[in-house]
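Thread amino acids onto this structure.
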């Protein structure tokens, strides 16, 4: 929700006004009820920009973390696959050796 900062031209009072998109409300000076207001470049605009930048950085780190996580998972899976292959190759020569000795006798 955007909060705008206004300055009343009549009395010089500065106040924040929350602008709801659903309600077409006009900002009115809470001091003198004047509607001759000047919208200021409030700190909110700067803060929101900084906030969105921080959000992007957070999302990037989250993405990087998830990538690392996937890499880890892939590495583990590859390790298991390699291990499984090793087990098979270890298993096969033994059987053939047994067969050879039987044939040799
Ligand atoms: Zn005023």
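Threaded sequence (105 positions):
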């Amino acid at each position: 929700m955007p909060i705008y900062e206004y300055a009343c031209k009549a009395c010089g009072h500065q106040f924040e006004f929350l602008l709801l998109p659903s309600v077409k409300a006009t900002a009115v000076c809470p001091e003198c009820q004047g509607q001759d207001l000047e919208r200021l470049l409030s700190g909110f605009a700067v803060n929101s920009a900084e906030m969105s930048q921080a959000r992007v950085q957070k999302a990037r780190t989250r993405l990087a973390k998830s990538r690392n996580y996937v890499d880890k998972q892939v590495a583990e899976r590859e390790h298991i696959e390699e291990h499984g292959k090793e087990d098979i190759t270890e298993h096969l020569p033994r059987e053939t050796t047994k067969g050879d000795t039987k044939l040799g006798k």
